[in-house]
Amino acid sequence: MNWQAVLDQLETGEIRAASQNEQGEWQANIEVKEAILAAFRAGENREFEGNYKGFVDKHNLPARQFSSADQVRLVPGGSSVRRGAYVAQGVIIMPPAYINVGAFVDSGTMVDSHALIGSCAQIGKHVHVSAAVQIGGVLEPVGASPVIVEDNAFLGAGVVIVEGIVIKKNAVIAPGVSLSGAIPVFDCVNNTLLPRGAPIPEGAVVVPGTRPMRGEWASQQGLSMACALIVKYRDEKSNAALTLESVLR
């Protein structure tokens, strides 16, 4: 695929770096990711002018410029959306925040201060990405699926999501939770341990937790490791706790 055409189509939302198959499973769009990598190879480091004078980056992957016609609220103060990223109407971006190439941010989503939406990450509609949330990006290997956050999810302050973790619709991730392929997630409602790297279920409320380390010496020292705990599934009460978000819109 021609990388210039791919970047244009990514920005309009015509194509995406990942999509769902008939079974509802998310898969990377390998051709799109290969085109993005081709763009990096074709790019030359150059100095920018105008608003970005003093910065140096690939000449073909500059920061996007928005106008009121885009109906995106990009608040002044150091935020940047890179070429090849899609930002839908109604998105709010608070400074400073960064949305990298290949990312998809759907309508009505809030991206708060110090948040990172990594390359090719897919963010659904009406998602609240709170302050200092870090959503990892992935370009290589090209077959690796990026982080997915589906519609109406709520990501609390300081949440870290990496390694292609999928957050299903309506899930609530409490402040300080880290999710990766190596961090176990215990479902305390259904008394199960999710498979490593499995999607966070729809409507799950996830909080940070710890678990004892194995081994006699570690036990003697009282050492523990991080994990994540599903403590409930969203109901009317937990939904009401999120209505403050509507005030910010």
Total helical elements: 5
Strands, count: 25
Supply the CATH architecture.
3 Solenoid
As a percent range, the share of helical residues equals 10-25%
Strand order of the largest sheet: 5-8-11-14-17-20-24-25-22-23
Gyration radius, rounded = 19 Å
Straight-line distance between termini: 38 Å
Which geometry do the CA atoms define? Answer: globular
Query: Biggest sheet, in brief?
Result: 10 strands, mixed
Low-confidence stretches: 243-248
Q: Which fold does the CATH topology refer to? A: UDP N-Acetylglucosamine Acyltransferase, domain 1
The named CATH superfamily? Hexapeptide repeat proteins
Average pLDDT, to the nearest integer? 93
- State the domain count: 1
Any descriptors?
28% strand; 25 strands; disordered C terminus; alpha/beta; 249 residues
